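Researcher: Structure prediction, please.
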Amino acid sequence: MSSTASAKNGTWRNWGGNVASRPAREVAPASVEEVSAAVRRAAEDGLTVKAVGSGHSFTSIAATDGVLIRPQLLTGIRKIDRDAMTVTVEAGTPLKRLNMALAREGLSLTNMGDIMEQTVSGATSTGTHGTGRESASIAAQIKGLELVTGDGSVLTCSEKENPDVFAAARIGLGALGIVTAITFAVEPIFLLTAREEPMPLDRVLADFDELWAENEHFEFYWFPHTTNTNTKRNNRSAGPEKPVSPVAGWIEDEFLSNGVFQVAQWVGRAAPATVPAIARISSTALSARSYTDIPYKVFTSPRRVHFVEMEYAVPREALTETLREIRTMVDRSGLRISFPVEVRTAPADDITLSTASGRDSAYIAVHMFRGTPYQAYFTAAERIFTAHGGRPHWGKVHTRDADYFSRVYPRFGEFTAMRDRLDPDRRFQNDYLRRVLGS
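Model: Predicted structure follows.
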């Protein structure tokens, strides 16, 4: 299977392989007018509509038995405005293509997540983020949006135009309409120096506030069943460029992070008792390294080992306590966890349903190799996350519902009211939205 979602015999599947649906029909519109027409025609046929990106969500947020809108023809840069320092891009553009096209123009996003296979609209609609002291989610860098609403009309929004729609639609979960174009803030391309090094977990937790404050972008991976972490600090640099050499890059990023790791996952799945020993070896396999390159080559890395993931945002001050509880839970549970736990941060933002809405946040992500039973681990982790008022990533596994979200998002009612206004007939409804937003 490719890095994106697949469709065989009329069945759509996501990248993680844990969600499947059978749409009544698929459409690949090439313009905003064709998207409007598809929405109006679906209404005439009494069908719901969902746009799907690359299928990188682990939830059924894009699943539909109605009309599935494929974005592969809605791609490319519409406009670069060097005075305003913005770029307007078609919604189906993969982040990878956007990053490469911007680099050729001497431009870059300020921050990004660690995977760039997603489409820009799929990534922003679910709140995809990287790590950052001052900057984080991709949606927080949006300056304007074009949206096809429930009756097929086209709405544009920004801080000045329809600001109430703008507040909600940057992370709209596909519930407010179909995003057809996004305008991002960009800046002149810059260099980042990455410093990756192992560090004991206790030290990372003890010094976390300092590590966070001293670095523009700090993240770490903790390997369950060990006391080891791998830390990564990314900071702006005056240069010179010192990319990872192709050989070292292949060894670290392909052979160890994808190849050997894949084999380790296969072994762990076949013989769970070997997982702690494998974890100890994996956690010491990656040595310290430093390199300097343009942003997307530092922030992102290939992910060829397929997994299933749950991630929650907790208040940043609750991070160390939450992670200690996760460690205790793993140690006491008898679970065998072969995938590292990833920790990142984001500053508070003003987007209605952003996981960092109104509060400085720390993200804790737990993963399991695709095909291994993940329910026991995720259920135990989720119990800990929710005890801290955690907010789950909209595109990753969770069991929360509208009742829970109305408690952890102060502006939840604002979002559902906007949905009533833009999609009164629930043209964009599916089972996932019924659960998380209420009917």
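Model: The mean pLDDT is 91.
Researcher: Thanks, that helps.
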